[in-house]
Specification:
By secondary structure, the protein is α/β, with parallel strands linked by helices. It contains 15 helices and 17 strands. The protein has a 9-stranded mixed beta sheet. A 3-stranded antiparallel beta sheet has the order 12-13-14, with no helix packed on it. Helix 2 packs parallel to helix 3. The longest helix has 19 residues, at 27-45. The radius of gyration is 21 Å and the shape is globular. The protein starts with a strand and ends with a helix.
Length: 374
């Protein structure tokens, strides 16, 4: 179950996620709208157990603990929530306090994802973040003191002008806190963002492929040495601490998307698979005059395509039986060529990207999709 909280204190210049800056977001009204949609979805999915809950955004840490508690109580009233359910809240260091952290923990949040993004002051200013490195580290300490023993740190790499030596220093500082999980995303310039406009005018120069490779290799080597498992293209975890919620999505499980702009995938009782998208205009979403989402039935050929794209992102790889069951035609010729090139491993039950393949993952997936009939 995914809840999208679209509010931010300030929109970051590189961000193309569905979010809006709001000095006083209507959090109470928004949570009531989320609960209305929970009741509408419950009629269709009541028999399904809830294995993970994820609060994403936006900035979910703008939700007061009592609202998080109210929302989780509603979920438990409507579904059977597994005792081992992973419940994640994304938080920005500038919007956490010791009181709020203790409140979220008491409400049932058992996994915290901190949007650190960098521990270099120049990079943080460049990224338009509202916190500095000291505040980020204060938030980590406060999270531990509040009882969070499952902590993810989000970071970005390949930002304009980023140097290898300073990146290694940042990584050493990050790893000193021994987070259970680390997500590291290569910066991309997304259309419609202020950074994209600057990039088009030549005012924003991104690192070239060689520099990106150096930064990524340093990341891989240091995390390998520290004992982390590289279980998805952009994600590392200590043994047993992979993010269950994201693994379920990458391995093509079902998830409800609740909230303005939230995306979901649900298999109905008759076997049809629907994709849903929450109403993007927050004012309309709050009105609640009808379901807060639109949906469409996904064609089998599209499901097979999505299955391939998701499966290859993970260390486990694409499950060929699932791909075949969805109608994907398993042709080996191009895959074997990529295996010979060192980009892919072909196993009896799965296909897996090699590390070299991860570096050019988009190209590998494009070539595979082009080689299959749907």
């Amino acid at each position: 179950m995914y809840f999208h909280i679209p509010f931010c204190r300030r929109k970051c210049p590189y961000c193309d996620f569905h979010s809006l800056a709001s000095p006083r977001p209507p959090t109470k009204e928004y949570v009531e709208a989320l609960i209305r949609d929970l009741y509408r979805w419950q009629v269709r999915t009541a028999s399904r157990p809830v294995t993970s809950i994820f609060f994403g955004g936006g900035t979910p840490s703008l939700l007061e603990p009592e609202l998080v508690s109210h929302l989780l109580e509603s979920v438990r009233a409507l579904w059977r929530v597994q005792q081992t359910c992973e419940i994640t809240l994304e938080a920005n260091p500038d919007s956490v306090s010791a009181e709020a952290l203790h409140g979220w923990r008491a409400a049932g949040i058992n996994r915290l994802s901190l949007g650190v993004q960098a521990l270099n002051e120049a990079r943080l200013r460049q990224l338009g973040r509202l916190h500095d490195a000291h505040k980020a580290e204060e938030a980590i300490v406060a999270a531990r003191e509040a009882g969070f023993d499952n902590l993810n740190l989000d970071v970005m790499l390949a930002t304009p002008g980023q140097r290898l030596d300073s990146w290694k220093k940042e990584l050493r500082r990050l790893l000193a806190w021994r987070p259970e999980h680390l997500s590291a995303y290569v910066m991309s310039v997304e259309e419609g963002t202020p950074w994209h406009a600057q990039w088009q005018r030549g005012q924003r120069v991104m690192p070239g492929e060689r520099q990106q490779l150096r930064l990524m290799q340093a990341l891989w080597e240091m995390l390998d040495e520290a004992g982390y498992i590289h279980y998805e293209i952009s994600n590392w975890a200590r043994p047993g601490r992979c993010c269950r919620h994201n693994l379920l999505i990458w391995e093509f499980g079902d998830y409800l998307g609740i909230g303005s702009g939230a995306h979901g995938k649900v298999t109905l009782a008759d076997g049809r698979v629907v994709r849903s998208e929450g109403v993007r205009e927050v004012s309309r979403y709050l009105e609640g005059t009808g379901p807060g989402w639109t949906e469409e039935v996904v064609a089998p050929e599209v499901l097979a395509q999505e299955c391939l794209l998701m499966g290859l992102r993970t260390r486990r790889g694409l499950r060929r039986s699932l791909y075949g069951a969805l109608g994907g035609v398993d042709r080996l010729k191009v895959a074997q060529e990529m295996e010979e090139a060192g980009l892919l491993r072909i196993r009896p039950t799965r296909w897996q990207l090699t590390r070299q393949g991860i570096l050019v993952a988009d190209s590998v997936m494009t070539m595979l999709l082009q080689s299959f009939d749907f």
